[in-house]
């Protein structure tokens, strides 16, 4: 297991830092396009902007997690195995925080900088911001505490399941076809929910690989 200059364990080769400027730029462009679409009543532009950002997030998550699923290689072998898995899951947490922060920013921007009106916009935006901050703090703690175990699988399942139920309700209730002012917010909920579910699935696959490889809680302490 490698130790950085701050005395914390880290996994070489797994980091979001090189991609962070591009993710932030993509989020800014996405939000700008969504505001323009919301102001013109163009439903396609916000959906396109959100979908492209989610594709970038999911692609980033796959780039981090997919190498750990390969049966041809053994990335979990040796003493660095638990650190690699823990850092991958930490990146997933940061990506989820990024999605919630993007959602909060998009909601604030669309219902502040355009003529679109929805009375619950700032409530949901604030809630998403709180989720983003909470996940960000958890990601920091997960990286600073060397004795923290790999996050339990049940938390990942609960997170993904809750978001999945919310999406199922929204789609089943016909909210994507609404003509009211929340139509733009529903695009944020839809695409943000897809991103969170995808990240949860990837995390679950990585955590399952941990269990099968015998590098669970005990080995990661």
Helix and strand layout, with pairings?
Layout: E1 2-3, E2 9-10, H1 20-40, H2 44-69, H3 81-113, H4 121-144, H5 153-172, H6 183-213, H7 217-220
Antiparallel strand pairs: 1-2
Helix pairs in contact: 1-2, 1-3, 2-3, 2-6, 3-4, 3-6, 5-6
Transmembrane segments: 20-38, 44-68, 89-109, 121-141, 153-171, 183-205
Keywords: Membrane, Transmembrane, Transmembrane helix
Question: Can you summarize this structure?
Answer:
The chain contains 7 helices and 2 strands. By secondary structure, it is mainly α.
Structural account:
With 221 residues, this protein is mainly alpha-helical. It has one domain (2-220). 72% of the residues lie in helices and 2% in strands. The chain is built from 7 helices and 2 strands; from the N terminus they run E-E-H-H-H-H-H-H-H. It has a two-stranded antiparallel sheet with strand order 1-2. Strand 1 and strand 2 (9-10) form a beta hairpin. The longest helix is centred in the middle third of the chain and has 33 residues, at 81-113. The radius of gyration is 19 Å and the shape is elongated. Keywords: Membrane, Transmembrane, Transmembrane helix. The chain crosses the membrane at residues 20-38, 44-68, 89-109, 121-141, 153-171, 183-205.
